[in-house]
């Protein structure tokens, strides 16, 4: 696995939790949202293994519902554990984000 | 929605795919469905999601390759790794269903053929005599052969997804035919080679058909209650 995909794996899970938290979402819409936010390098299909893992860990819950457009779709929403996991992610992300930024702007770009 | 309803919806929806996307998707479908002992519900739900995704991407001018990449086999393996295992309870129920149905057909066919050959062609006898011990041994060994047969066919089908080179239809047919013939031969060989042991009993041949019908109804009841197939 490349460094990029290793880095992305955990972060992607957090992003997916966050998007689902903002609004219950189905697979296709979720991948489009990720792309729109700029994660355009994430291949569209890569969300499905993650969605399965999050379900297995009981962080999200999927339910087949009729959508406005008509077809039945599986909409995901956060469980209580999912809310906790998201809060955890945001906490850890905040504590990493700025130090990493500081380090690489000072040291990494000589 | 249960797995059965999702499968029906999937069959319907698949018709919307272009030829190229359909070929790509059906390989994924085959490969994922035949992965052993994964939760059917989760499997079918994710298969429908993948299908919906391809259909929407297709409408926007992107192909299945654009969505899932050039290595669908590896993608499917990732996906299968995340699908929860089927519960033991359901696995046992499902096996029971298959075994009952299999025994039902064997018993029924045996009973009817024995009855017809005796009453219409005057062959054999209207009584079937067998030893209880060898009878049970035959059933157990033949069930094992059936299990191996199914397991090998599944694996074989699974490996036929994502072919590097498409195999000719008649070669495939010949392979399956040879393998099936071999299995059936093995099946009958067990019956012939089994030595007699245990108490010998004689029962009217036609009663096998009755047993078959009872087993069949039992199997149907298990299926109906649990919605297995």
Properties at a glance:
heterodimer, A: about 110 residues, alpha+beta, Arc Repressor Mutant, subunit A, 3 strands, B: about 230 residues, mainly alpha, two-stranded antiparallel ribbon, 2 strands, Metal_resp_DNA-bind_regulator (chain A), WH-like_DNA-bd_sf (chain A)
What does this structure look like?
The complex is a heterodimer of chains A (110) and B (229). Helices cover 61% and strands 15% of the residues of chain A. Chain A is α+β, with helices and mostly antiparallel strands and 110 residues long. The longest helix of chain A has 27 residues, at 80-106. Chain A is globular, with a radius of gyration of 16 Å. The relative contact order of chain A is 0.14. Chain B has helices at residues 3-13, 19-33, 40-59, 64-68, 72-82, 88-121, 132-159, 169-193, 206-226, and strands at residues 127-131, 200-204. Chain B has a two-stranded antiparallel ribbon with strand order 1-2. In chain B, α2 packs antiparallel against α3 (40-59). The interface between A and B is medium-sized, with 21 and 24 residues.
Please, how many domains of chain A? 1
Spatial strand order of the main sheet of chain B = 1-2
What is the total tally of β strands of chain B? 2
- Please provide the ordered H/E string of secondary-structure elements of chain B: HHHHHHEHHEH
Succession of helices and strands of chain A: HEHHEEH
As laid out across the biggest beta sheet of chain A, the strand order is 1-3-2
Report helical residue fraction of chain B: over 70%
Subunit organisation of the chains: heterodimer
Number of helices of chain A: 4
Principal-axis shape of chain A equals globular
Largest sheet of chain A: 3 strands, antiparallel
Residue share in helices of chain A? 55-70%
Share in β-strands of chain A: 5-15%
Principal-axis shape of chain B equals: elongated
